Amino acid sequence: MRKKLLTLLVLLLPCQLLFAQGNLLKDFPEGFGPKEVGKRLAYRFLDRKHMLHAGKWISYPETFNWTGALKYAEQTKDKKLFSLLQDRFEKLNSEEKQLLPIMNHVDLNMFGSLPLAFYQATKDKKYLEQGLPYADTQWTLPARANAEQKEWDSKGYSWQTRLWIDDMYMITIVQAQAFKATGDQKYINRAASEMVMYLDKLQRPNGLFYHAPDVPFYWGRGNGWMAAGMTELLRLLPKDNKDRARILQGYQTMMKSLKDYQRPGGIWNQLIDEPDCWAETSGSAMFTYALISGVKQGWLDKQEYAPVARKAWLALVPYINDKGDVAEVCVGTNKKNDKQYYYDRPRNVGDSHGQSPYLWCTFALLEK
């Protein structure tokens, strides 16, 4: 009888371990739950002043903070939060129209993802009509295009292509939202084609990405934009899309490398492969979002990667202060072929570059 019980326990053990792995992204200590953390961050956005690009237009970090809070409100059915976010947007379209971004740069066109998100939530066509031009002009060659922009356009890519890794969230997100809003395959197909080109040009054999072809450093948040961009595409690309397998390969190769470079404390460095570089939160949160999504969507092995994602989330939350602001966020960073430049970048508290990906993590964790 005892032998039979021992045999039964041995047979059940793998199932118990699998169940435990599944709970790694569900059961958290008090103060670490995604709903409570997300609420702190989403309502904090409402108290913030506008974060402007070149002092003129709503910036991409604010846009992503806004859409992150909006998605959190939808997922948790927080009608009060949704209404407050919508009121802020209506004010932008009336009293603050001068702050609406123009459509001439990759960091500005991505603003279209915000009205497109409002359209999906409300079905109000005014938001669709506002958002789609930002997606369309990304592939419409301007009259004053330079030779390089004309060359990218002639190859079927966005004229806004720069081969900076940041682009693969800026371009991907507005095209992905346009696809979700309209169902038109051209948006997701061209985003996927662009992503494959960036993968071929910038991903290294170890799975990580140079900031640009002439900047051979593995900058944390830059790599985070790539990780999050691939994640957004994989969520939407049909199984039979011709570029899906290549993007999935690039994503999985990157996640393996990130697992290997994760600090003992749980997050990643400003320069991922430099052990003496400082721990940075915005890129780490983007990696965590990509890892959580991969485990839940089945792109990554649950037993191998759920512990990595959990460890990262538990390490990230303590960086949020009592006001709901994330610390140790690298400021906006242009490319530079100088390693010390990345070591010396200032660190902000409450910067939307960090607030946004933390929100992405919360709704990824809340997904069924």
UniProtKB/TrEMBL annotation:
It holds the Pfam family Glyco_hydro_88. The keyword Repeat does not apply. This is Glycosyl hydrolase. Keywords: Hydrolase, Signal. InterPro entries: 6-hairpin_glycosidase_sf, 6hp_glycosidase-like_sf, Glyco_hydro_88, PolySaccharide_Degr_Enz. One of its GO terms (molecular function) is hydrolase activity. PANTHER family: UNSATURATED RHAMNOGALACTURONAN HYDROLASE (EUROFUNG) (PTHR33886:SF8). Residues 1-20 form the signal peptide. SUPFAM superfamilies: Six-hairpin glycosidases. One of its GO terms (biological process) is carbohydrate metabolic process.
